[in-house]
Amino acid sequence: MTSNVSQNYPYTSETEADRAKLIASLVAARDDLAGKLANETTPLDASERWWVWKCPTKGCAGLLHAAGYAAEKHAVYVVCDGTCGQTFLR
Ligand SMILES: [Zn+2]
């Protein structure tokens, strides 16, 4: 366990339908996101619910939603729905 484990603790969860809708709208709104996801992630497994995390960026009130698995790491690739627009691994 690392020292920033509290930061990695999930904030809430969402249904697969909500997650898919949210990610689709973020991809539609951000020019670079579809390419990033295509290059850096593999598709998620089928699941009914997904964890949601709070964005760690200072001043950003966004939440992090699962968008895929990180291509080369055992981690979930998440996208912030807030103002920072960043991606993270969880
Ligand atoms: Zn953010």
Could you list some keywords that capture this structure?
31% strand, single chain, 90 residues, alpha+beta, 24% helix
Hetero groups: zinc ion
- Report the mean per-residue pLDDT as an integer: 91
- Note the gap between the termini: 13 Å
What's the total number of strands? Answer: 6
Give the proportion of residues in helices: 10-25%
Domain tally: 1
Q: Name the poorly predicted regions.
A: 1-5
Counting helices, strands and paired strands, the structural category is alpha+beta
Number of helices: 2
Integer-rounded radius of gyration: 12 Å
Provide a concise account of the structure shown.
The protein is an alpha+beta fold.
Task: Describe it.
It is a single chain. The longest helix has 14 residues, at 16-29. Strand 4 and strand 5 (76-80) form a beta hairpin. Mean pLDDT is 91; it is low at 1-5. This protein is 24% helix and 31% strand. The chain has one domain (5-89). With 90 residues, it is an alpha+beta fold. Strands 1, 2, 3, 4, 5 and 6 form a 6-stranded antiparallel beta sheet that branches. The structure holds zinc ion.
